[in-house]
């Protein structure tokens, strides 16, 4: 079986076997990443959790490949503080299970100066999980560690703890370090979210270095605040296509990250900014999200936004993407797609939807949503064709939605009721 199939099936037994026996370090590294990503499903697995953690500890401590050791440490991070402490205890020869939190933090801080980079990596990751403010100083000092793998995890830990004390050090590596460390520094600044952290990120959104601009724009999507919206909207006009697309992805992500008490304000701000932007810079990235993203929240927000930002010149493109999304597995995404589609009438949409509901090979859910949209935008043609449709269609759900659409259009129908 391929790694993809093992991941899809959450086959921990075979994944652990690969981690322990594969001769290919790339396979072992990817396997460790998969095991970490599957941690939420581990509780449903028949394979013992302690054996999974034991295998990751051995890989993190003994594997000959630096990449495998790093991937195993990150996987242990997904399995929680106790799993990380098992690794650290294995390396230093001291059980940490019964030690008080402040003593653990102290021991981990001391381990930041260890000779073995794997111990420094694990210590930094563990400190980020404990979250004690009194270890920020040692962490910030370690942002200049000679090993970039350590610097990357130190930056991540600083973001988790979230204190402004680490902002100057993070800003320095944001400007000067290698790519993957810069990314972690940018994310950490966004997670800290103080005024000075946001200033550091915003200061590089117009940097000469395209990579630096992209990193900053990507991180701003984690803020969930109105302040980030204007910066991201400005990035939609960036000279780089990559930066522009990243800015749109971040705006969509920002909708998901916004706190409940600011969600409406952020949403209105984003729509207002996108309405002023060039639709050509907005529509294609949203279409790409619907076509490519596996994140439910991103796809919901992209479907919601498309109906509000697509202009006449890009209407067909938006309609195509939304029609393809009407039968989405996520009911809320398909509902948003239908609602947005009803806002984009014209360009032959009514005829396309009428042809779609008559297509017996099309998914029933897609046809149900299409009937909802026709109830919003249909005219005489819809009334005529729906009258015949409800008489001959055999599916009860389609017939019910057909009657509902007819009643909204002034035809003979059943009591209305928007679907949930």
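^ Assign residues to that structure.
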């Amino acid at each position: 079986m391929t790694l993809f199939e093992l991941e899809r099936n959450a086959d921990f037994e075979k994944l652990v076997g690969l981690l322990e026996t594969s001769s290919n370090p790339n396979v072992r590294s990817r396997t460790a990443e998969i095991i970490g990503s599957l941690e939420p499903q581990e509780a449903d697995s028949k394979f013992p959790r302690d054996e999974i953690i034991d295998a990751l500890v051995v890989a993190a401590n003994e594997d000959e490949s630096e990449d495998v050791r790093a991937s195993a440490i990150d996987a242990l991070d997904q399995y929680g503080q106790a799993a990380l402490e098992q690794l650290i205890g294995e390396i230093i020869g001291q059980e940490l299970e019964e030690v008080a939190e402040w003593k653990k933090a102290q021991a981990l801080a001391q381990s930041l100066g260890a000779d073995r980079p794997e111990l420094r990596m694990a210590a930094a990751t563990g400190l980020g999980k404990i979250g004690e403010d009194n270890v920020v100083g040692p962490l910030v000092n370690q942002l200049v560690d000679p090993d970039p793998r350590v610097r990357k995890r130190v930056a991540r830990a600083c973001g988790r703890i979230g204190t402004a004390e680490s902002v100057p050090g993070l800003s320095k590596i944001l400007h000067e370090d290698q790519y993957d460390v810069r990314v972690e520094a940018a994310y950490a600044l966004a997670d800290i979210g103080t005024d000075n952290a946001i200033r550091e990120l915003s200061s590089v959104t117009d940097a000469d270095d395209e990579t630096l601009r992209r990193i900053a724009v990507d991180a701003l999507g984690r803020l969930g605040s109105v302040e980030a919206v204007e910066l991201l909207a400005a990035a939609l006009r960036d000279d780089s296509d990559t930066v522009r697309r990243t800015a749109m992805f971040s705006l969509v992500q920002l909708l998901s990250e916004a706190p409940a008490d600011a969600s409406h304000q952020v949403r209105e701000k984003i729509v207002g900014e996108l309405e002023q932007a060039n639709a050509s810079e907005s529509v294609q990235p949203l279409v790409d999200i619907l076509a490519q993203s596996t994140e439910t929240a991103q796809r919901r927000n992209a479907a919601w936004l498309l109906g509000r930002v697509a202009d006449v010149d890009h209407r067909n493109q938006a309609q195509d993407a939304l029609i393809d999304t009407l039968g989405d597995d996520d009911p809320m995404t398909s509902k948003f797609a239908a609602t947005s589609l009803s806002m984009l009438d014209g360009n032959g949409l009514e005829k396309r939807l009428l042809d779609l509901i008559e297509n017996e090979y099309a998914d029933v859910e897609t046809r149900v949503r299409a009937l909802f949209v026709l109830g919003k935008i249909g005219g005489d043609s819809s009334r005529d064709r729906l009258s015949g449709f409800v008489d001959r269609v055999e599916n009860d759900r389609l017939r019910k939605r057909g009657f509902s659409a007819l009643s909204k259009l002034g035809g003979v129908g059943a009591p209305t009721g928007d679907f949930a």
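Residues 349-420 form one domain.
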